[in-house]
């Protein structure tokens, strides 16, 4: 049983909480944990053990049937949408309650309540970034503009709360017992906080590090090392003509603020998060009908971020992956359409330097006048200590996140955040409408409500249409706006409105027979609006496009194979050049064996191959040596993408950025290639001193941890191939958390898989039962099922009105 190893470990190491150690006083009462009637023994069960055949659910208008298949995937059959979402809330909470609440507490800045002072800096940052501010704005918008969606969200919350009310202490998820707290009632506000958290995870910027880099090295370096449109890109949407008259954007005369240098790296989006999606037209498939594929890449955790579900009313049936805490299906399909999402990686967060009149910070300079700021007192409860009171200043741009009281250590600097996610919007409506959409026009209407985080929505329909739309709320900016810290006292730095929805980049039924996205540049350079991000991807998307261009007679198996494609395009484009530039002395001796392995490599990063580990080590050390030579004065700066660096190595090998100014010699790209190789040899030789063999899977060491990282027995290791910038994307702790392939037609065929299980209970056999299949590249059927189609039923429950 999984708990035995964990509790022996607990006795000796006294762990708990969010990757940090805590003291003995913070531990829960151990006697209650080991209580045979209320403690962890009560969680050592699987959901198919003595399940309830019928339950009362207050608020239902008529009975709802829930049938659980052999993987514990619920198929909910309800007579109305309100009953449907109420039951979805109950069933999701029954399997994922602790995960739902923990993620919301983390996003709302309330982890200190349950784990103590260690979480206080993170709590303050989440609050200062305005996640609660944005959720409140969205809730007010729903109350005023869309009470229908709000009523569905309330029904979902009612279902969650009905589950919470019937929980005994013994039935509480194990994490509540370990952390010694109790669940709170759910609400639509909590669902909105959850959606804000997704915007935070998938939104990023490097305004401060870009500013440092520009101040240190000048505009020439910025143009060469960080080109906004590098050569050879393949955008999501490419057109010669866009067919609309763009909104006018005035290019002002501006000067950036004298910001000095920033000594801290302010947290941004986790690097590497991304996704793949594509849809192929019937003309390229064996069946003659479209096929859609989607595999989002996010943190790999247990419980899984995703929860598979089918939702049925007499009007329609939808199936796919939901997010515990949000209504409906997020990536999925119904009887008529399929859709999938990837992060569009647009720059929708900008930072402004605020000049206050005096230390009171009650007024700040704007266009030569002093205007009033507002204050919000945030009371943060801290377990075992007095409450912490944080004062957050708000400007018309947004909250002052970093100031003398937070991250800047008493310095008289104030940086305000303007972010599209703060504004009123209705992302939940997008997914409710997509779930019941039946054609291209209804898909467009559904996604028109989606603001943040910006997403690429792939679409396919039974009618034969395929489409891709880059959707979000995108500021109208002049060229270059938002790359660097801006002066909050000048209105010239304001956004000039938003790009009209009808001007968003999209294509339907292109002549090439497919649409695809993989977090690359959204548009071709002739798009009439300024588009920027420092997070674009340059390899997965080109590999996907190249493969789809060559394919004909495409089948479901072909789409699965492409999702699992381990071809390392970055290595294929760079390794031959790197090998050719090795000095003879580097090739001598024992290093020769590593060279021979690299020379024989076919560039597929399979799990049992040694060459991918050698190449990744070599590239990483090359970068570290080169970047370490730059005279950054110890300041956090930005570094070029591996795509840009690859072009510079081959096309400008004598560029000034390759010359180490601390030496008398003139270094070139060749010098750093050799230095990187030398360090790779040292690293791999040391690795082999304690390992029997070198394989990519062991070296990369992908692991699927519990949301509380210190709970190691509740996590799993996964021996998988692929890697960063590979279609089968994975790193040590993130990867394809949901793979889905949907073949439309008279009888829809659909398959999916994710690394986890339906249950959030580590004692359940459904907690991690899908990891082995995911690891091996297998899928499970996720076809739409009627009551009569569910021949392999685990159990079923009838929810009755009270």
From TrEMBL:
UniProt keyword annotations, A-Z: Hydrolase, Zymogen
Q: Which domain of life is it from?
A: Bacteria
Q: Which InterPro entries match?
A: Ntn_hydrolases_N (IPR029055), Pen/GL7ACA/AHL_acylase (IPR014395), Penicillin_amidase_A-knob (IPR043147), Penicillin_amidase_dom1 (IPR023343), Penicillin_amidase_N_B-knob (IPR043146), S45 (IPR002692)
Q: What's one Pfam family the UniProt record gives for this protein?
A: Penicil_amidase
Q: Please report which protein family the annotation says this sequence is part of.
A: Belongs to the peptidase S45 family.
- In its UniProt entry, what is this protein called? Penicillin acylase family protein
Q: Which source organism?
A: Cyclobacterium plantarum
What taxonomic classification does the UniProt entry list for its organism?
Bacteria, Pseudomonadati, Bacteroidota, Cytophagia, Cytophagales
């Amino acid at each position: 049983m999984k708990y035995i190893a964990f509790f022996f470990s607990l006795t000796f190491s006294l762990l708990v909480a969010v990757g940090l150690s805590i003291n003995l006083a913070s531990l829960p009462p151990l006697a209650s944990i080991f209580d045979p009637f209320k403690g962890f023994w009560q969680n050592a069960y699987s959901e198919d053990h003595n399940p309830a055949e019928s339950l009362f659910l207050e608020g239902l208008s008529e009975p709802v049937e829930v049938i659980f298949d052999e993987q514990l995937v619920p198929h909910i059959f309800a007579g109305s949408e309100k009953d449907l979402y109420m039951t979805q809330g109950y069933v999701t909470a029954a399997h994922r309650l602790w995960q739902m609440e923990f993620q919301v507490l983390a996003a709302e800045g309330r982890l200190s309540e349950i784990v103590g002072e260690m979480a206080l800096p993170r709590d303050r940052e989440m609050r200062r970034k305005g996640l609660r501010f944005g959720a409140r704005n969205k809730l007010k918008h729903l109350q005023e503009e869309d009470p229908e969606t709000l009523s569905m969200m309330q029904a979902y919350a009612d279902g969650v709360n009905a589950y919470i009310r019937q929980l005994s202490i013994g039935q509480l998820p194990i994490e509540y017992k370990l952390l010694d707290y109790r669940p709170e009632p759910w609400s639509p506000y909590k669902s909105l906080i959850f959606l804000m958290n997704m915007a935070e995870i998938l939104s990023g910027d490097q305004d401060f590090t870009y500013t440092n880099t520009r101040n240190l090295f000048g505009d020439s370096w910025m143009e060469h090392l960080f080109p906004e449109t590098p050569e050879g890109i393949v955008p999501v949407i490419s057109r010669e003509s866009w067919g609309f008259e763009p909104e006018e954007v005035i290019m002002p005369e501006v000067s950036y603020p004298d910001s000095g240098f920033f000594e801290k790296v302010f947290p941004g989006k986790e690097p590497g998060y991304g996704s793949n999606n594509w849809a192929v037209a019937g003309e390229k498939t064996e069946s003659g009908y479209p096929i859609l594929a989607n595999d989002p890449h996010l943190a790999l955790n247990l419980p899984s971020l995703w929860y598979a579900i089918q939702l049925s009313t007499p009007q329609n049936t939808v199936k796919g992956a939901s997010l515990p805490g949000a209504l409906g299906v997020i990536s999925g399909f119904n009887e008529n359409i399929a859709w999938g999402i990837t992060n569009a990686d647009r720059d929708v967060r900008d930072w402004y330097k605020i000049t206050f009149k005096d230390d009171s910070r009650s007024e700040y300079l704007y266009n030569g006048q002093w205007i009033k700021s507002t204050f919000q007192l945030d009371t943060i409860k801290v377990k075992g200590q007095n409450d912490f009171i944080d004062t957050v200043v708000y400007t018309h741009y947004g909250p002052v996140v970093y100031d003398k009281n937070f991250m800047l250590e008493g310095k008289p600097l104030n940086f305000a955040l303007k972010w599209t996610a703060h504004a009123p919007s209705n992302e939940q409506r997008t997914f409710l409408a997509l779930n019941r959409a039946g054609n291209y026009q209804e898909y467009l209407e559904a996604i028109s409500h989606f603001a943040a985080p910006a997403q690429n929505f792939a679409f396919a329909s039974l009618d034969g249409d395929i489409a891709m739309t880059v959707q979000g709320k995108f500021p109208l900016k002049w060229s270059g706006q938002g790359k660097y810290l801006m002066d909050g006292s000048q209105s010239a730095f304001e956004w000039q409105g938003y790009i009209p929805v009808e001007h968003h980049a999209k294509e339907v039924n292109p002549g090439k027979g497919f649409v695809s996205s993989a977090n690359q540049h959204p548009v071709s350079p002739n798009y009439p609006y300024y588009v920027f991000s420092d997070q674009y991807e340059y390899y997965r998307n080109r590999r996907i496009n190249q493969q789809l261009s060559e394919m004909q007679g495409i089948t479901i198996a072909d789409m699965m194979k492409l999702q699992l494609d381990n071809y390392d395009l970055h290595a294929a484009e760079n390794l031959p050049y790197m090998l050719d530039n090795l000095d003879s002395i580097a090739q001598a001796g024992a290093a020769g064996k590593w060279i021979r392995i690299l020379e024989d490599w076919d560039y597929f990063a399979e799990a049992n191959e040694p060459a991918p580990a050698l190449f990744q080590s070599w590239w990483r050390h090359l970068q570290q040596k080169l970047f370490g030579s730059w005279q950054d004065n110890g300041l956090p700066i930005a570094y070029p993408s591996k795509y840009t660096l690859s072009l510079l190595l081959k096309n400008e090998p004598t560029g000034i950025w390759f010359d180490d100014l601390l030496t008398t010699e003139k270094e070139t790209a060749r010098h750093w290639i050799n230095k990187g190789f030398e360090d790779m040899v040292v690293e791999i030789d040391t690795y082999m001193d304690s390992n029997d063999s070198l394989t990519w899977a062991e070296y990369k060491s992908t692991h699927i941890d519990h949301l509380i990282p210190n709970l190691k027995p509740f996590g799993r290791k996964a021996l998988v191939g692929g890697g960063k910038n590979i279609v089968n994307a994975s790193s040590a702790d993130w990867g394809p958390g949901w793979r889905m392939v949907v073949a439309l037609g008279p009888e829809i065929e659909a398959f999916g898989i994710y690394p986890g299980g339906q249950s959030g209970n580590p004692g359940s056999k459904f907690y991690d039962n899908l990891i082995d299949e995911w690891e091996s590249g297998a899928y499970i059927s996720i076809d739409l099922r009627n009551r009569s189609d569910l021949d392999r039923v685990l159990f079923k429950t009838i929810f009755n009105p009270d």
